[in-house]
Design a protein that fits this description.
This protein has 455 residues and is an alpha/beta fold. The protein folds into 2 domains: 95 residues, Urease, subunit C, domain 1 (Roll); 317 residues, Metal-dependent hydrolases (TIM Barrel, Alpha-Beta Barrel). 28% of the residues lie in helices and 23% in strands. Strands 1, 2, 3, 4, 5, 17, 20, 21 and 22 form a 9-stranded mixed β-sheet that branches. Strands 11-12-13-14-15 form a 5-stranded parallel β-sheet. Strand 11, helix 4 and strand 12 form a beta-alpha-beta unit. Helix 4 packs parallel to helix 7 and helix 7 runs parallel beside helix 8. The two termini are 35 Å apart. It binds zinc ion. Zinc ion (ZN) binds next to strand 6.
Length: 455
């Protein structure tokens, strides 16, 4: 089967230009002015951008978070993704108490297989570091699972790793090719906040419980460790401009990258001052420094823009007594809003916006996940994951998710329309609508065992 996507404006790894894209047997085989090449199927892309299939590098689906089970399953999360041009959804396998990581992997596979509409890639969250667990981690690393998530906070949830632990893992697993993803909020600074002196019925107090300084200090500590041990470090969901600047400053010195999220770029702490402000609780919190962080992201400083998607049912978000915000379901959804809000960073220049999506939502996440030999760019030889994007469709409200869940971006809209989305060459979405919703075609994606470096 040969498919020709013609007359579009293609976002290539280094530039945006008018180009046709030829797809054969699930792979991209040619990109350029292809003239009268024959094909079994022609997709007319005049007036549209042709992008590599996008990735959301950071999502949570089909999992228990605190007291609540998330609203999105693999089925619904990957459907929201694919309809918005996201062909690979990255999510987490978290080791729970009494469970080995391989057991947790098998459980996640069981939930995802046969139900996912786009490809799925797992980051691993180890929570036990006994000798046998470390050996299991080394085996998974050798099998190509490279991305490990660590937390500098959340002791009560059993996922905290001390700086000493992180140092030890950097030293031991870094040379084996581990890519560390670290949630940076300094636990000692958070623990030192006098919660009794705060009005915990006021959602805005969350910004005092988890202050900017906690993130900034943790980023500096973990960056210093990564540079010392030459470990590959990706800092997740950076919410502060000061934290982002530490990473920008140190990036030339080592294997450092970071992501920020749409909520930190378009929402600020005033949302927590609304009467229903508790619904916008997430960690790290929405910040007053949003304009500076947005300017940094506009300048391309954030390697990756990803959602930290964590969708809760409205009744779960509202399930608190109004007295202690620490009991509120903590997290915001975003998968369906991601490409739209990222585009709007550069919407005064459509070519720049298309290039921004291709870089920060495709190329960089694919490289960080170690799948750039298959995903993340419009290049011959790679999987034909392709999004044909009309930048001038009818204006529509954003929908972060397709299931009944709290919406983090009410009143936000977009004119982007995904006219076609191909998954490994197979047309799966037309005009924003999923084709054959009863026939999910997504596959679990195993990172490469080849030596692939982010830098
Ligand atoms: Zn997360």
């Amino acid at each position: 089967m040969r498919t020709l996507i013609r007359n579009g404006r293609a976002a290539l790894p280094d530039r945006v230009q008018d180009a046709d894209v030829l797809v054969e047997d699930g792979r991209i085989t040619a990109v350029g002015q292809l003239g009268e090449v024959t094909a079994d199927r022609i997709i007319e892309a005049a007036g549209c951008y042709v992008l590599p299939g996008l990735m959301d590098f950071h999502t949570h689906v089909d999992d228990q978070i605190g007291r609540f089970y998330l609203a999105d399953t693999y089925e619904s999360g990957t459907r929201a993704a694919l309809q918005n041009g996201i062909t690979t959804l990255c999510t987490f396998v978290t080791q729970s108490a009494g469970q080995s990581l391989p057991q947790a992997m098998a459980a996640a596979r069981g939930k995802a297989e046969g139900r996912s509409h786009c490809d799925v890639l797992w980051h691993l969250t180890p929570t036990s570091f006994e000798p046998a667990e470390l050996r299991a981690l080394e085996t998974l690393l050798a099998a190509g699972y490279r991305t490990l998530k660590l937390y500098t906070t959340y002791k009560a949830a059993g996922i905290f790793a001390s700086y000493g632990r992180i140092e030890d893992l950097f030293r031991r697993l870094g040379p084996l090719g581990a890519q560390f993803m670290v949630h940076c909020e300094d636990d000692a600074i958070i623990a030192a906040v006098d919660a009794a002196a705060l009005d915990l019925g006021d959602a805005h107090s969350h910004t005092l419980l988890r202050p900017e300084q906690a993130e900034v200090v943790a980023i500096q500590r973990v960056v210093d460790l990564a540079l010392t041990y030459r470990a590959a470090l990706h800092v997740v969901h950076v919410s502060t401009a000061d934290g982002a600047e530490i990473l920008v400053r140190n990036r030339p010195l080592g294997k450092l990258s970071f992501e920020t999220c749409p909520q930190y770029l378009v929402l600020d702490d005033t949302w927590l001052q609304r009467p229903d402000g508790h619904r916008w609780l997430c960690s790290p919190p929405l910040r007053a420094c949003r304009p500076r962080l947005r300017e940094l992201a506009r300048a391309g400083a954030a390697d990756i823009i990803a959602t930290d998607h964590c969708a809760f049912r409205p009744e779960d978000k509202d399930d608190w007594d109004g007295k202690d915000l620490r009991t509120v379901a903590n997290g915001l959804p975003g998968i369906g809003a991601l490409p739209h809000l990222a585009w709007q960073l550069w919407e005064d220049d459509a070519d720049r916006a298309a290039f921004g999506l291709a870089t920060h939502l495709a190329l960089n996440p694919a490289r960080r996940a170690g799948v750039q030999d298959r995903k993340g760019a419009l290049c011959p030889g790679l999987d034909a994951d392709i999004a044909v994007l009309d930048p001038a469709g009818p204006e529509q409200p954003l929908r972060s998710t397709l299931v009944p869940a709290f919406e983090a971006f009410p009143g936000f809209s977009s004119r982007l329309r995904f006219r076609h989305v191909l998954l490994r060459g197979d047309p799966r979405v037309e005009d924003g609508r999923l084709l054959e919703p009863d026939r999910p075609q997504g596959l679990p994606l195993q990172p490469s065992t080849a030596t692939l470096s982010f830098h």
